[in-house]
Amino acid sequence: MHRRRALLFMLLVTLICSNSSALFAQTDAQLQLTMIGHGAGPYYASAGETTQLKIEILNLGPRDVFLVRGEAYLNPDLSGNWQLNHSEDLGTFHLAKLQSAIWTFDLRMPSHIQAQNMTNDVPQVELHVKIVYSTAEEQQESTDSLFLLSVPGAGVRQADYSIWFIFVGLAVVALAAVVVFRRMSSPHRKGKP
Questions:
Q1: Is the pTM of this model over 0.70?
Q2: Does residue 116 sit within a domain?
Q3: CA 21 → CA 11, 12, 17, 177, distances in Å?
Q4: 53-81 as b/e, with b when 16 or more CB fall inside 10 Å?
Q5: CATH number at residue 54
Q6: Considering its fold, how many domains does the chain have in total?
Q7: Sheet with 50-59, edge to edge strand ranges
Q8: How far is CA 92 from CA 31, 119, 155, 180, in A?
Q9: Pairwise CA distance, residues 71 & 40, whole Å
Q10: Residue 141: burial class (beta carbons within 10 Å; 0-12, 13-18, 19+)
Q11: With pLDDT > 90 as the criterion, what percentage of the chain qualifies?
Q12: What is the mean pLDDT of the chain?
């Protein structure tokens, strides 16, 4: 009887704990970033030139937010080293639920930009946009999004296959060593019945 009560008590505590986040936690604000213009894309930014881009910032969360800063990052040499290309104060612009703002900024595309792939013979790179905002409780948060940019005039970096040749060579050497080791370690049964 005591075991049954203890089991029911543990089950009740587990249910309360599992639902506590849904019951007591406030939902965070959610900003959705969308690049506008050029129809549905692609978005063009020529190498070595300054291009005006527009980002729609939509507040999907239940709370009001105040936009603080917009930042745009590029990875110009495909090394994973994202560099700040543009940063701008957004003047604590107020957004209520389902309200949106359009951030218009000038993107200065380096002339030495490298691209990893091409679409319709145009090199493409990624743009990382980050929006910093504050809540009514004055807590700063951020949201970000990646956008694919077509960059006429950019160079296209060819894939470096030398590392694959090294891996294949090492695999062949390891396989040959295993085969030789097995042949040398296997017992010779010649002359035995």
A1: no
A2: yes
A3: 17, 15, 8, 57
A4: bebebbbebebebbbbbbbbbbbbeeeee
A5: 2.60.40.10
A6: 1
A7: 31-36, 50-59, 100-108
A8: 15, 38, 38, 71
A9: 22
A10: middle
A11: 43
A12: 78
